[in-house]
Structures are given as structure tokens and as C-alpha cells.
Amino acid sequence: MLKFTEEHEWLKLDGDIATVGITVHAANQLGDLVFVELPEAGSTFSKGDGAATVESVKAASDVYCPLDGEITEVNDAIVADPTLISTDPQGTGWFFKLKLADPKAVESLMDEAAYKELVA
User: Fold this and answer.
1) pTM
2) Burial letters 77-101, b for 16+ CB under 10 A, else e
3) Angle CA 109–42–84, to nearest 5
4) In what order do the strands lie in the sheet with 96-100?
5) Which of 35, 91, 110, 116 is most buried, judged by most C-beta within 10 A?
6) Positive or negative, the Cα torsion across 27, 30, 31, 33?
7) What mean pLDDT is predicted for residues 12-17?
């Protein structure tokens, strides 16, 4: 099950762990990515906190934490090769895994149909 935020992050839930990345729409808006900074595993964030940073040839952008939780894992592959985000943003281009403080909070996020309406 994929969920989406208005800030263009996606979440894929597996129990109380959410894999988080940016949407195809966001990746297309950013263009060619040249740098990624990820949070440290073990750090905690509140919903809306800047958790990661991406830089393209155009601009730097924050990737926001979609819900309250603790980072359990980061995707070092995108640090080594930021183009993975552009080529497969909702697959190999994921950013981090988040242990949700409240797994039910995911229900407050958009489903794919609502997100597609937002970016249409």
C-alpha cells in the first residue's frame, strides 16, 4: 500500500516500518540530482521535519519526514549515485526507512488517486 504527502513524499508500509522516498512528480521537477544528504539511523523526527536534502543542478530541496518516527535504515546507494532517484524514485531510489511512532497515522495521508489529483 502506497501513501503520499502534499510535499511529494511516498510511503510504503510494512508493519510499523515505512519506506520513504520522493514521488516521480518530485523527481521530474528537480531534474538531474547531484547530491543527497540522508539522516542518521537512530535519529527521530516529527512529521514535517526536514529529514534529508537533495540537490539538483537547479536547486536544493528538503525531503520531509512524513510522520513521527525513528530512522531505522538509510539508502546509501542514492548517496553514491543520486541518479537512482531520477531513474527509479519509487523503487531503488528510496531514501530511508522509518519506524512509525503511530502506524495508524498513515491513514491521514493521501492514497494514489488523491495524489494524482493533487499534481494534475
Assistant:
1) 0.95
2) ebeeebebbbeebbeebbbbbbebe
3) 65
4) 2-4, 9-14, 17-22, 96-100, 69-74, 44-45
5) 110
6) negative
7) 95
